[in-house]
Amino acid sequence: MGTNHGLNRAALRAGLLGLSTAAALIVAAPAAMAASTDVAGGSLDWGFKASFRGYVSGGNGTPPIAATNGAAINADGTFDFPAGGGTYDAAAGTASMQYRGTIVFSYPLHGFTITIANPKLVVDGDGEGSLLADVDLTATTQPSAHVDGAELATVTTTAPTVTDGAVTFSNLAAKLSAGSASVFGGFYATGAALDPITASASASAGSGPTDPTDPTDPTDPEPGNGSAAQTIKAAVAGGALTLTSAGSDVNLSAVTPGQTAIGNLNAVTVSDLRGTNAGWDLVGQVTDFTSAAGTIPAANLGWTPTAAVVAGGLKAANGVQNAVTPGGPVTPGTGLGASKTLCSAETGSSLGSSTCGAALNLGVPESSAAGEYSAVLTLTLA
């Protein structure tokens, strides 16, 4: 079974279906903003999802990721959008803050261009919020689509930091909204963790979150009599995100119509040696099972994923905690005819190697003819 690092093109056919519904469900900022302040300055820093940026960056776009109309790309690859209006209430911790700028993800070889523009953060003061934006999808497999004010993410909010009347909402947890999963080709499931959001707003232009001060380098100690110090330097270059499989063939148990054939997926190993701790997702989708006698639909293949971190013999880097999460079980009948998560590692916990596997179960319909059936399961890593 070969490795496929590309986005599932067929999934792009979902396009922006459902985004307009999601946008219609966004509720205006609550009445608690009666003492609101008009936004004149500030910025929003967000990167959508680090693993998606890494995937698109390796593509053939010119460039793969571009920032225009006031947006900028930060040194760490995330995006900066300047304030463009809205209001906030520092006392109530509520806000409806508009930002300006456009980000374009382009991957012509994989047949898509995705544009995100003019993000808006809505915070209700009760621990919940939404990130909205104008979204465009152009794909080779379907007509172009455009939605204004689509809900890209649901946001878990915290009380803002208030400084001289300006507010900063820092590192807000964000998850992909149900209506927006399809714009990214169905590659990320609803509720997938996205990059954290930091947003600021002030009543005067030019105000924004202050960059933290660089720590002062420690002073070298004075050498004593008869001692010497040597500085040892080691350059560590970023590697690759790779997927390997322990085998290419899986034989399920022999059954009769109406029974369930079982077996195990060959174990696969994901190695994240990029040095960015950006996170990754591994998903799978199967074709229909075919034989000379007939077809068994792909949806009849289910799985129960497993995942574990590969332990190494070296002491882990300070503060690094690796973790891998198996995808949810999928039952025959609603199975792998659509892309499903086998395992994933979130941003901040993906470095190192992990193994993923699954118990497979194929429900064979009573209407199936006898024969030797086969299908191809494709695993995609990004």
Automatic annotation (TrEMBL):
Coiled coil: none annotated. Residues 200-228 are annotated as: Disordered. Residues 206-381 form the WxL domain. Keywords: Signal. Residues 200-213 have a biased composition (Low complexity). Residues 1-34 form the signal peptide. Residues 42-199 form the Htaa domain. It holds the Pfam family WxL. This is Htaa domain-containing protein. The lineage of its organism: Bacteria, Bacillati, Actinomycetota, Actinomycetes, Micromonosporales.
